[in-house]
């Protein structure tokens, strides 16, 4: 009975005496021609929330808060979403905002009626505008908000409809500082809503209104990030305020595959097949999918979506969460030494890291940069600016060539003298040099030489051309496949052969530890060689490692030739 009584007040302001008494003057001023009923006067007052009196604003805030807390109090939700509630959230409590949150999770479901979607969206817009209209966020994040966004919390605590979503925005920007799991999960829902539809972000909606009309007026948003992606495609042409907001939300979207509805849905099967143990969040799942995108088992629709994701990531380090986080100190050092070039160039910080990878100090950064180079080796579209710079040359010289699996790289390298775009030629040469020097980065070697590494170089580290040298030292063995031999022939394998025996102390310790049986058997020879001459010791150790593999490795297993990532296991 109480719920029904309160609902009548949310439907007709005259049946909510506490609100009507405070808002009567504002109703006459702004909503005189609005017919009471179906919440129309309340909606009118909310539309004019920046102009109505403080007393009326606080009364209207209380009216909104009641509806957000109890699904049954909202006349619109009860009227339009009753059947959908039974379908999607039959056992969820109406209290504490739980049912409303559940229904919002299903807003883009095809079975959701249009009228219910409209009502849910209205509630989402109002929740996004005020921290305290989100019962679950308020419950779990109030203390966190006090610590990381005290100024915005003080403003929101007035509860007068004027906060404009600033507190939620602040918490989203400082999400890395949030340690409370319940708060993270509650805030995640709000982040997901904004990334999926930037019109739900109050400040962004205001700043990007003219740009949206100018560039994306024909876009039909279905809550899958269509408007944000359209604006991002015109990033350089956006107004300054809009550009920075779109950058923020595109950066946020890169952190979790669940923020990308289309990618998430198309790649569900691929995620289970290729990344079953990868935890979502932090960009990990998207990175894993990108690492497997050229596998033959990859769903073609998922691959197409990954190509688009890869293109976005090549544009800015901010869209590469693992790279951005892992390389923070290294990129600051390189910037301080003025080694990163022109900041107006697409992907300039990514280029800086890959160009100076030998100078990187953070282990996590080295790993992240190696991952970037692997993807660039597999697909020219992963190289910042290469798809754009080489567009005409690719169409002229490689029009029928497959775009992935390093095919375009091979085509352009074979016809390098015919390339007309200087920037394209420079990028072709740069990626070629990396491929020629690293067996652990080179896509074709990773794809074609898996068995050979397992048989002859399993314990050999990847860096400093040592792995390339080890493979080259054995490339004339009968067990070597033609594909692996041909891939090696296109590298600096002769140079690697010279460097291969000059193993570092760390490499020697690694090999000695992994091959203790050999050391015990040939200890005197190895010890004498080490004392006599370091290089001779390296040759002896390398000889016995290779000898041991030839004698004791059963070379019969066949690894799939289209899974280059297996080389790193």
Task: Give the helix/strand layout.
Layout lengths: L1 H10 L5 H14 L9 H8 L6 H16 L5 H14 L9 H8 L8 H15 L6 H14 L1 H7 L9 H8 L7 H16 L5 H6 L1 H8 L9 H8 L6 H14 L7 H6 L1 H7 L9 H8 L8 H14 L7 H6 L1 H9 L11 H8 L7 H16 L7 H4 L1 H7 L9 H8 L7 H16 L5 H6 L1 H7 L9 H8 L8 H8 L3 H7 L5 H10 L1 H17 L1 H19 L17
Distance between the termini: 65 Å
Shape: elongated
Oligomer: single chain
Mean pLDDT: 89
Amount of helix: 55-70%
Structural class: mainly alpha
Q: How large is the count of helical segments?
A: 35
Share in β-strands: under 5%
The number of strands is 0
* Whole-angstrom Rg: 30 Å
State the major sheet. Answer: none
What are the segments in which pLDDT stays under 50 over at least 5 consecutive residues? 501-510, 547-561, 565-569
How is this structure best described in words?
Helix 8 crosses helix 9 (150-156) and helix 34 packs antiparallel against helix 35 (534-552). The chain is mainly alpha-helical and 569 residues long. The longest helix is centred in the C-terminal third of the chain and has 19 residues, at 534-552. It is built from 35 helices and no strands.
What's this, in brief?
This protein is mostly helical. 63% of the residues lie in helices and 0% in strands.
Which features does this protein show?
about 575 residues, mainly alpha, 35 helices, disordered C terminus
């Amino acid at each position: 009975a109480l719920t029904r009584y309160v609902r009548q007040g949310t439907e007709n302001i005259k049946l909510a005496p506490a609100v009507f008494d405070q808002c009567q003057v504002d109703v006459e001023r702004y909503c005189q021609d609005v017919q009471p009923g179906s919440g129309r006067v309340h909606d009118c007052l909310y539309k004019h929330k920046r102009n109505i009196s403080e007393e009326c604003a606080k009364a209207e805030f209380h009216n909104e808060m009641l509806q957000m807390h109890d699904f049954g109090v909202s006349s619109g939700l009860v009227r339009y979403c009753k059947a959908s509630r039974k379908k999607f959230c039959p056992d969820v409590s109406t209290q504490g905002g739980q049912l409303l949150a559940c229904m919002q999770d299903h807003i883009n479901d095809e079975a959701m009626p249009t009228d219910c979607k409209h009502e849910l969206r209205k509630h989402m817009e109002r929740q996004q505008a005020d921290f305290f209209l989100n019962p679950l966020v308020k419950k779990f994040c109030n203390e966190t908000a006090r610590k990381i966004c005290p100024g915005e919390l003080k403003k929101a605590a007035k509860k007068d409809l004027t906060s404009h979503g600033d507190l939620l925005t602040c918490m989203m920007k400082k999400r890395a500082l949030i340690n409370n799991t319940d708060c993270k999960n509650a805030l995640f829902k709000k982040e997901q809503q904004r990334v999926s539809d930037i019109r739900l972000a109050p400040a962004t909606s205001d700043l990007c209104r003219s740009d949206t009309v100018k560039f994306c007026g024909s876009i039909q948003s279905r809550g899958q990030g269509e408007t944000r992606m359209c604006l991002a495609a015109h990033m350089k042409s956006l107004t300054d305020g809009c550009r920075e907001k779109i950058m923020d939300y595109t950066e946020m979207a890169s952190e979790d595959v669940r923020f990308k509805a289309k990618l998430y849905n198309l790649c569900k099967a691929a995620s289970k097949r290729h990344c079953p143990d990868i935890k979502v969040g932090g960009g990990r799942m998207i990175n894993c999918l990108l690492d497997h995108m050229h596998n033959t088992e990859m769903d073609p629709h998922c691959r197409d979506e990954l190509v688009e994701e890869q293109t976005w990531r090549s544009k800015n380090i901010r869209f590469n969460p693992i790279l951005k986080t892992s390389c923070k100190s290294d990129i600051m050092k390189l910037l301080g030494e003025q080694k990163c070039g022109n900041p107006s160039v697409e992907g300039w910080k990514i280029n800086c890291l890959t160009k100076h990878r030998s100078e990187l100090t953070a282990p996590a950064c080295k790993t992240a940069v190696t991952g970037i180079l692997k993807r660039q080796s597999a697909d020219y579209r992963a190289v910042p600016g290469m798809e754009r710079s080489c567009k005409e040359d690719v169409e002229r010289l490689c029009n029928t060539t497959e775009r992935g699996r390093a095919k375009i790289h091979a085509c352009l390298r074979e016809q390098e003298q015919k390339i007309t775009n200087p920037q394209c030629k420079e990028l072709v040469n740069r990626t070629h040099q990396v491929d020629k020097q690293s067996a652990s980065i080179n896509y074709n070697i990773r794809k074609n030489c898996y068995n050979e590494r397992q048989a002859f170089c399993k314990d050999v580290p990847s860096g400093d051309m040592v792995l390339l040298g080890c493979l080259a030292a054995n490339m004339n063995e009968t067990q070597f496949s033609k594909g692996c031999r041909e891939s090696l022939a296109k590298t600096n394998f002769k140079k690697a052969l010279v460097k291969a025996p000059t193993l570092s102390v760390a490499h020697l310790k690694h090999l000695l530890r992994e091959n203790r049986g050999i050391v015990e058997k040939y200890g005197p020879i190895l010890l004498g060689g080490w004392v006599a001459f370091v290089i001779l010791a390296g040759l002896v150790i390398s000889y016995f490692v290779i000898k041991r593999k030839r004698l004791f490795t059963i070379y019969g297993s066949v690894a799939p030739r289209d899974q280059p990532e297996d080389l790193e296991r």
